[in-house]
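Hey, resending since the last one bounced:
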Amino acid sequence: KPSWFGFLITCKENIDKKLLVNQLESRGIQTRSLFAGNLLMHPCFDNMRESGEGFRVIGNLENTNKIMNQTFWVGVYPGLTTDMIDYVASSITEILN
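The structure tokens again:
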């Protein structure tokens, strides 16, 4: 069962997340970016990155970068009907094919 507000999707490397999200939005399917992943890349950390102070990094952050670049939410809520859910699923399948 998905959370009450969204279903999280992480695209494989060969899938263009931006294209998929744009196509879903054009079909009336709401999406949201995931505020997670490599938080150091978010604008609020610009000054820290420039100074190199106030944080530390362990490892190469490969997985956090993947989440940041390839993950998004598809909106869900308890009022979705089976037909609506089928529309979202079939839209994703059609876009990816």
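The mean pLDDT is 89.

Sorry for the duplicate.
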